[in-house]
UniProtKB/TrEMBL annotation:
Organism lineage: Bacteria, Pseudomonadati, Bacteroidota, Flavobacteriia, Flavobacteriales
Sorted UniProt keywords: Carotenoid biosynthesis, Oxidoreductase
GO molecular function: oxidoreductase activity
Entry protein name: Phytoene desaturase
PANTHER family according to UniProt: PHYTOENE DESATURASE
Xref: InterPro entries: Amino_oxidase (IPR002937), Carotenoid/retinoid_OxRdtase (IPR014105), FAD/NAD-bd_sf (IPR036188)
Family the UniProt entry places it in: Belongs to the carotenoid/retinoid oxidoreductase family.
Metabolic or biological pathway, per its Swiss-Prot or TrEMBL entry: Carotenoid biosynthesis
Pfam families linked: Amino_oxidase
A Gene Ontology biological process term: carotenoid biosynthetic process
Superkingdom per UniProt: Bacteria
Residue intervals of the Amine oxidase domain: 12-485
UniProt key word Transit peptide: no
Amino acid sequence: MKKKIAVIGSGFSGLSAAAYLAKAGNDVHVFEKHDHPGGRARQFTTEQGYVFDMGPSWYWMPDIIEGFFADFGYKTADFFEMISLNPQFEMIFSNEKIDVPESLGELKIVFEQIEKGAASQLEKFMQSAKFKYEVGMQDFVNKPCHNWAEFISLKIAKSALKLDLFTNFRTYVARYFKSDKLRTLMEFPVIFLGASTKNIPALYSLMNYGGYALGTHYPLGGFYQLVLAMKKIAEKQGASFHFNKTVERINTQTDKVKSLTIDSKNYEFDVVVASSDYHHTETLLDREYRNYDETYWEKKTFAPSSLIFYLGVNETIPNLKHHTLFFENDLDEHIDCIYKEKKWPEKPLFYACCPSKTDKNVAPLGKENLFLLMPLAIGINDEEVVREKYLTEMLSRIEKHTGMRDLQSTIEYKKSYCVSDFMSDYNAYGGNAYGLANTLGQTAVLKPKISNKKLKNLFYTGQLTVPGPGVPPSIISGKIIANEINKIKN
Ligand SMILES: Cc1cc2nc3c(=O)[nH]c(=O)nc-3n(C[C@H](O)[C@H](O)[C@H](O)COP(=O)(O)OP(=O)(O)OC[C@H]3O[C@@H](n4cnc5c(N)ncnc54)[C@H](O)[C@@H]3O)c2cc1C
């Protein structure tokens, strides 16, 4: 029988859950506090004509995203045009820069130039990464993770050793490469998972395959095109979207959610899926119904927050690629500031995205759209004067790299975004940008659970639960939750 289902939030997980739930014939209503969809992947346009994606910019694991579209009889190409970036990105060190080319064959040549024998090591690394990607994506990632029994299968048992679950990523990479630069290059994809590579299992070398081997892509018009396409698909299945609607309270009756309070009125639902940040969702419930208390969250390793600048530059910036990683300083020093010392880094690393190098839709002619991102500890003070200090530092390093003079004077649009904005815009615990880190102790069954333990009809999806942070995992998370709900008998 058709269920009336509320989805809280319209980020990737909410969009995905809504589409699958509506496809199964349910009456689905998405409530979003902002005036448009996308959550952390929202987009805004300035008066001058700059179009900024607010969050994700690395379109990796295209096969997973394509899988979502295929489930509804579409291809991404039905909605937007995709460009494969070449080079995928550039990494700047203090005395050298490395371009990561589009093809793995060319990347091997780059590796061999830096370290003798590194081409064949990369080949071996990638073979193992491909295996992990295939096992991970087919057998692990779609599990609801209620308990470990879900992982007991002959195939998984046979693969267990080859998955390198119990080796940390840092040690694993060091087995393959001697050069510090190559090691940093290979560690970079895993930094997306939100923890030091010393604490991430080597299983996640699957990310190197999902990135370097499958390529770095870009949807023309920006990452937001993916949001719009997913919303369209959800609507075609019958889902309804309600914007500027903040869910204020989740109301219960005995062992069930009865209604949601929105604009001070109560609306009844058979099932509720919360794609809002997990901790925030639980604050909408009376304490006795929460899965986890404050101590639980305090002990968790959160992925970082970020300092972001959206800059409209009224000149062309020479010698800058679409994606550039400014890694001139020590990676571990910055990582320690995020996780151990929880303070602003003295010698930061940062990332610059200049999508106008690929896409004329995102900046006026002859101008550049520049997005700068510096990962930061959650919960730290982010007053304007500190943000500006780091902007000056980042701009001077871009000037040094590009040879451009006085970049500051060419900025005709500027907006900063940091810890407190993540808190107020997304109700994000500590102002986290990327959810909960994928450390071994926070993987699979050890992640916050997808169902409420006391309320039969309340479910959680998104980057704070399984499978974890990132666009493809959030899309998968929505599918997992929809499968669980579609299994419920009336
Ligand atoms: C700066 C940045 C860069 C990133 N870069 C990449 C990248 O390059 N590649 C990649 O794969 N991933 C990237 N990520 C991660 C990726 O964007 C996220 O993992 C993903 O978008 C999370 O989706 P979600 O649905 O879990 O959460 P969200 O996108 O946060 O969606 C939750 C939604 O719930 C809404 N909401 C919250 N509370 C309420 C309430 N009470 N009532 C109603 N609505 C509510 C919010 O407004 C939001 O729209 C990046 C993230 C950030 C922040």
